[in-house]
Write a structure and sequence with these properties.
The complex is a heterodimer of chains A (about 190) and B (about 120). By secondary structure, chain A is mainly alpha-helical. Chain A has 8 helices and no strands. In chain A, helix 1 runs antiparallel to helix 2. In chain A, about 20% of the residues are buried. In chain B, about 45% of the residues lie in helices and about 10% in strands. Classes of the chains: A mainly alpha (about 190), B mainly alpha (about 120).
Chain lengths: ~190, ~120
């Protein structure tokens, strides 16, 4: 591999770990590494070092700095970087649509599932509320364990409520809504 | 990676300050990332250059601590190569670097003056 190709690999890694960071911070880091790589290659070529050894030197600097890169990203994510809002909205909308499609399909293939427009609206509002609460919690607290807890509660509610549609929906909603509220309180507490 | 005690500098950060001080004393008031890594390699006799992530994370911390300041080169001065970010020691950075050099022999961990980290 040539030094330039290895430098390209480093540049791709920089683009990866600076994703979703504020543009000036991401661009500053990318430009700084770009200048470093250029100087590195030029200096070592001028010193008569072979192409393969230069490429290996760049690869070594990349690999030895991976942990520090991740730590640097984590610090900048904590100090103000936010995921784009549009992604959160799309995630919540897709999640709600996916879950609501299940009873809809159930109504098409079975006479046992009977949901009225009011049920869909109520379920949609509940699910959207939960989705927004989870997104907020993930942004502010980033606590995966709590998200898993919410999912487990949802599954439990689904199993308990499967005997009858409307009570199942209500139980699912109450359980998930309560856990989402708990998550929101925790997120707000941690953000102080 | 060594865990930082409050108000202290990591060994790499101390090394950067000491190198920056030696560059300043030899008439180079500012320096860039690769130049610094190269100088540190020469001074320490190491075979390898400091890793990108480690070096720039340390520079970033030192700048946030007010020990270094930085600015980008003028686009007109670069002549076909990427612009470099140039760092220089602040007056507080000079103080801390001098203390670090003086305290090195005594084996003391350098501190960021009397302020909390």
């Amino acid at each position: 591999m040539t030094p330039e190709r290895m430098a390209g690999l480093v540049a791709r890694w920089v683009r990866f770990y600076t994703r979703d960071l504020p543009a000036p911070i991401a661009r500053g880091r990318a430009d700084e590494i770009d200048a470093d790589l250029h100087d590195h290659i030029a200096h070592e070529r001028a010193a008569g070092i072979g192409e393969r050894r230069i490429a290996l030197g760049i690869a070594s600097r990349l690999v030895r700095g991976l942990a520090a890169d991740a730590a640097w990203r984590g610090r900048h994510l904590k100090t103000g970087a936010r995921k784009p809002l549009s992604r959160s909205v799309v995630r919540v909308a897709l999640g709600v649509a996916l879950i609501l499609s299940l009873p809809l399909i159930g109504m098409l293939i079975s006479d046992d599932v009977v949901w009225g427009p009011g049920d869909f609206v109520a379920a949609g509002v509940l699910l959207a509320t939960i989705g927004v609460a989870l997104e907020l919690a993930a942004r502010r607290a980033g606590n995966l364990a709590l998200a898993i807890g919410i999912a487990a509660l949802g599954i439990a509610a689904g199993l308990v409520g499967q005997a009858d549609d409307t009570p199942g929906l209500v139980l699912l909603g109450i359980l998930l809504f309560a856990s989402a509220c708990a998550l929101g309180v925790r997120a707000a507490h941690r953000s102080r | 990676m060594p865990r930082r005690k409050p108000g202290t500098l990591l060994p790499l950060e101390t090394e950067i300050l000491e190198t920056a001080l030696s560059l300043l004393r030899s008439g180079h008031s500012d320096f860039h990332g690769f130049g610094l890594a190269q100088t540190m390699r020469e001074q320490s006799g190491s075979r390898s250059l400091t890793a990108h992530g480690t070096l720039y994370k340390a520079l970033s911390r030192l700048e946030e601590s007010g020990l270094l300041s930085s600015h980008w080169e003028d686009a007109a001065a670069v002549e076909g190569r990427p612009r470099r970010r140039l760092y220089e020691l602040t007056s507080r950075g000079v103080q801390v670097a001098e203390t670090a050099v003086a305290g090195k022999a005594a084996g003391r961990l350098p501190r960021l003056a009397s302020e909390p980290a």
